[in-house]
Fold this sequence. Notes:
By secondary structure, the protein is mainly alpha-helical. It has helices spanning about 1-25, 40-55, 60-80, 90-105, 115-120, 125-140, 150-160, 175-185, 190-205, 210-225, 235-255, 260-270, 275-290, 295, 300-315. The longest helix is centred in the first third of the chain and has 25 residues, at about 1-25.
Amino acid sequence: RFYREMFSKNVRDDYSNSILESLLRDDFIIQNFLEIHKITPRMRTRMADWMIEVLSNYNCDDLTYFESINIMDRYFKECSNKNIVLFPEDLHLIGVTSMFISSKYHDIRPLRLKIVQEKIAHGKLSCEEIKNKEDEISRFLNYSFGLPTIWDFITIYIEEIFYVKYNSHQIHNKILLDNYYKENEENINEKDENEIELGKLINKLYTKNMLYLLKTVCLYLAKMNCHDYELIQNKQSLLAAGTLFVAMKICEKINEEEYINDYFNEKLSNISQQDENSIIPVAQKILYNAQHFDEVFNGLENLKRDHFNAIIEIKNTK
Length: 318
């Protein structure tokens, strides 16, 4: 396990900058994508919540969910651009097909068409209808899938902020670390030594248990954001930054620790390329939704059941 962690650390050293640059370059924004349609934001929210139930039941990757949302919303927008009006009766087929496409892209064992038709669509859609809609969505999106999602950005933000030299890359094997620093001692200068000392302090604060809690809270908030028609119209990178900030606040409340400091704020702004004035309004909206979930998303239980309860069940969070 430790050697896998060291390998991941080396990959981060070599490629993290180019990965982040690529994600930021491909980041996108979709606005007013329901403007001409008869599908309301509330209908879309119910679909987003139902997708959680479906994809969880079939053990699909978390990225499959966020990709499904992206595909569906981008399709709404492309239909608007072509002056094609969508109606409530179209939503089921669009949602089912978006999950079908996304699962092919992200899952090791993707959803099979027969399962989608019989179990997920409950036989209300034919295989031919799903295949035709898959072809149409693919053409409308110019066969462009895998664009950055909020979860892609959150994942790399966490990697860049918490799995860094400051905390020995979260590798807790003294022999392995000593050998690493010994092999690279010619590159270690006074500044590096100071950073290693800083890392010892930071490592006491951002423990593995704390980071596990943080990721769990982030996943809950990120999926909650996909329910909100207004929030989802922000750039994915900005939405991710606001989500991570709120998740840190929630972790502070749960653990009664102070996690947000100058180090975190500076790293989050630098990595996301967003200043505080951009992040805070988004974070405030996310926090409001979290605090008033039953009011804002009344009647929707899948997100709470699958992800909020997962936060409650975490025992050791420090």
